[in-house]
Amino acid sequence: APEEFLELLELLVSRARTYVSSLAAMEEFHLSLSQCVVLRYHWIDPFVRSLKERLASFHRFFCVADQVKVYTNQNKTRTFIGLEVSAGHFQLLELVSEVDRVLEEFDLPTFYKDPSFHISLAWCVGDLSDRLEGQCLRELQDIVDGFEDSAFLLRVQWEQIRCKSGNKYFSFPLR
Predict the structure, then answer these.
(1) 62 DSSP β-pair partners
(2) What InterPro entries does its record include (predicted)?
């Protein structure tokens, strides 16, 4: 992440910590195109090959992630502050459709029906969404909206899709 993005992240996390002191900033950033699934060892290579084939025709594209939103995981054991995608949603849905087809080949759960594509910025244990919604969320959005060069910083070019399996990463460049 560029230094300016990390400055914005620090401002956001500092403000949010006045509402939830246990928030931890993310150290790596990603946007999910699938749920976490368990792959049997002997499935990894065929799964990766299938992903590579399905994603080969996709071109690079831009999206904008500039809407602050609060999320919880399915079990309500973690709360996240993220930046929701406001432009590029259609291209992400097309990618998810192809990833879902691969997941179906292996009888694995597909992605959420109406996904909220986002990049997580910070997290904490438990469901503390009630403390972060409302006034806190408005203050965080004001920081994003007022941050110098935020329009440039929050515009992301997708050049590759990555798949993580255990400690291995597989990269699929977009054309």
Answers:
(1) 157
(2) Cyclic_Pdiesterase, Usb1
Positions annotated as catalytic residues are 30, 118
Indicate the domain borders of the chain: 1-173
CATH hierarchy code of domain 1-173? 3.90.1140.10
Kindly give the residue spans of alpha helices, DSSP state H, lying in the chain: 3-17, 44-55, 89-105, 129-132, 135-146, 150-153
Does residue 54 contact residue 104 with C-beta atoms inside 8 Å?
Answer: no
Determine if residue 84 is left, alpha or beta; phi over 0 gives left, psi from -120 to 50 gives alpha, anything else beta.
beta
List the one residue out of 19, 27, 29, 22 whose CA is nearest residue 154.
Answer: 29
Residue with tokens 């929701």: 84
Band of pLDDT at residue 152, cut at 50, 70 and 90:
confident
Window from 32-36, 96-100, 153-157 with minimum mean pLDDT: 153-157
State pTM to two decimals. Answer: 0.92
